[in-house]
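Q: What would this complex look like in 3D?
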Amino acid sequence: MQNDVLDRIFQALSDPTRRAMLRQAAKGEQSVSSLAKPYDLTFAAVSKHLKVLEAAKLINRRKAGSFQMISLNPETLKSADQWLNFYRQFWTARLGSLKNFLEEKKS
Amino acid sequence: MQNDVLDRIFQALSDPTRRAMLRQAAKGEQSVSSLAKPYDLTFAAVSKHLKVLEAAKLINRRKAGSFQMISLNPETLKSADQWLNFYRQFWTARLGSLKNFLEEKKS
DNA sequence: CGATCATTCAACTATATGGTTGACTCAGTT
DNA sequence: AACTGAGTCAACCATATAGTTGAATGATCG
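A: Here is my prediction, written as structure tokens for the whole assembly.
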């Protein structure tokens, strides 16, 4: 898991519009216009946000005639989750036992 | 959980130096200089990174004489984890249950 | 073919970000 | 009181980001 991969992921997630778009995409594959509808943004702006999400591999695109169909690529979020995993021990109550659990996972 | 809280958290996490600093802070409370040591950066730059982490509430500061002692504030990462939690179903589910989930959402 | 819809591209603007240098503050030392 | 060490602040620079407008592309429809 390279650094710049996480850079892109977290950077993409740092924008509320993009997080909302991801949430929308999670409901199922849909066109760019459909994703754009809830926002008071130009198509160009939406297009840019999608480029950021795509560069971070958080979404997939598929051409369907004159439409671009967007879908969630959940695998990528797994990387973010794995990064967080290290810290989970610090906020979980039973510090010792979780830590042990994590140690086991490593081996 | 406000939007801008997540904005700050993910934004703070999008920089590799800051992620490394967090990792270092996780080892235990330490001074700014101690955190700065591994990086080829000026103190001012380190200071800025710490401000970003502090604004995101990812770290705590404590004054100890002429030192600033920095420690991890893991509670905040819990928010990021909770945000991710929604998506966990998409990568953990065996195909069958994911399919079911999507079917439910549609209706 | 020409019009239209869905979307992207290019150019531009404003603000944010990550870095630097140099002056400054505060605490402890000599 | 003067010096040094730890760290911050202010000003500045270069690049990135989020948005706009307007022209361009490409598929579909009359």
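A: To summarize the key features: Residues 11, 15, 17, 41-42, 44-45, 48-49, 52, 65-67 of chain B lie near DNA strand C (CB under 10 Å from a C1'). Chain B has a mean pLDDT of 89.
Q: Very helpful, thank you.
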